[in-house]
Amino acid sequence: MTAASSSPTRDRQGRPLVAITGAGIVTSLGQGKADNWQALTQGRSGVHRITRFETSNLRTTIAATVDFLPDATSCAPVLSERLAVLAAEEAIAQSGIGHLPADGKPGNFPGSLFLAVPPVEIEWPQRIALARASGKTSDISYADLLRTATSGAFAEWHDLFLFGTTADRLTERFGIGGSPISLSTACSSGATAIQLGVEAIRRGETQAALAIGTDGSVHVEALVRFSLLSALSTNNDNPEGASRPFSKNRDGFVMGEGAGALVLEDYDAARARGATILGFVAGCGEHGDGFHRTRTSPDGAPAIAAIREAITDAGLTPDDIDYINAHGTSTPENDKMESLASTAVFGERASLVPISSNKSMVGHTLSAAGAVEAVFSLLTLLHGRLPPTINYEIPDPAIALDVVPNVARDANVKRVLSNSFGFGGQNTCLVLTSEPTA
């Protein structure tokens, strides 16, 4: 053992500290941390009119789609995998751990994979193609579709639309050791992937973990489903101004696409190999409830519990938090609930702790959101600059928070709380710090 690892560094509970040594990101604002951070702190929106498919019969015709990739597709499993690969490559390259795929050979990442992906199911274009290929014009059964999907030109679809396939492909590409973990906890999935990576390192099961959240789910069927829930903004004439977290005139969220990735390592192991430490995931908190399949408990109790657990897990108190990366969806109910939760946890300080929503610019990236926003939280720590909540023109008198309105702000930030609150009461919060809290 080297001198750096001869005396183990532990937190107050005797667990290994979890360091971040690499980060990668792709959103509608661009590919990579540099482009995303520049756009985010300049207050630029990545929301625009959808051009990838026909929208004339949809209530919502805008989204923060990733359209700059060659041959961008609306097939969720394909695009989600492409986004995950780009984010993972940037994170692994920065960390300097293992090596990336090269010369037709797979990479070698010496750790585990925790992947948040959208719940995959075959979409309408593929269903219609299978129905036509079945040779039947009526009374088409599920057995007919399955038989067609597992033969001939459609055989690859069977694997493509299986939950877990994306993780298998990433494992092969990057040479991941151990069984890959695929997970879906609604809009908190990306944060859950990070939490599982942290817990695996703390338990000593691995010295490194690659945590990814990815989602390329903007397609017709998804837009229809969210519209039926009255969850989406219909401000189609002003795409850039449609996502308005915490504003009185907010009217729903805007779907987004993207991926975020973090390389997590046992602090001692990272120092022993000479890695650059970017920050730490010091605390994780999760709390669920069965209040409703889509709505959040109006008293905010699960969110309050998740925030408190994350702060306590980090060995901190609410007074130690310098900034909150909000879930901030721009829906009337969620923003109100998050404000209620902040007030309950931070008390009189709630109106003083800056809290801003990246979703005002990148939309709601769904399964990827927790990971995307964790990367933005890390960049906030590294650069000492708070991204704004844009489109904040009409304050909601019921939400008395410092939302960093419209313009980025320099600040001394050492501890960030990143909130993720998902459908069905699946809530996960993370505390990221610039220094160990032990």
TrEMBL record:
<comment type="similarity">
    <text>Belongs to the thiolase-like superfamily. Beta-ketoacyl-ACP synthases family.</text>
</comment>
<dbReference type="InterPro" id="IPR014031">
    <property type="entry name" value="Ketoacyl_synth_C"/>
</dbReference>
<dbReference type="GO" id="GO:0005829">
    <property type="term" value="C:cytosol"/>
</dbReference>
<dbReference type="InterPro" id="IPR014030">
    <property type="entry name" value="Ketoacyl_synth_N"/>
</dbReference>
<comment type="pathway">
    <text>Lipid metabolism; fatty acid biosynthesis.</text>
</comment>
<dbReference type="Pfam" id="PF00109">
    <property type="entry name" value="ketoacyl-synt"/>
</dbReference>
<keyword id="KW-0808">Transferase</keyword>
<dbReference type="InterPro" id="IPR020841">
    <property type="entry name" value="PKS_Beta-ketoAc_synthase_dom"/>
</dbReference>
<dbReference type="GO" id="GO:0006633">
    <property type="term" value="P:fatty acid biosynthetic process"/>
</dbReference>
<dbReference type="InterPro" id="IPR000794">
    <property type="entry name" value="Beta-ketoacyl_synthase"/>
</dbReference>
<dbReference type="InterPro" id="IPR016039">
    <property type="entry name" value="Thiolase-like"/>
</dbReference>
<dbReference type="InterPro" id="IPR018201">
    <property type="entry name" value="Ketoacyl_synth_AS"/>
</dbReference>
<dbReference type="GO" id="GO:0004315">
    <property type="term" value="F:3-oxoacyl-[acyl-carrier-protein] synthase activity"/>
</dbReference>
<feature type="domain" description="Ketosynthase family 3 (KS3)">
    <location>
        <begin position="15"/>
        <end position="434"/>
    </location>
</feature>
<protein>
    <submittedName>
        <fullName>3-oxoacyl-[acyl-carrier-protein] synthase II</fullName>
        <ecNumber>2.3.1.179</ecNumber>
    </submittedName>
</protein>
<dbReference type="Pfam" id="PF02801">
    <property type="entry name" value="Ketoacyl-synt_C"/>
</dbReference>
<keyword id="KW-0012">Acyltransferase</keyword>
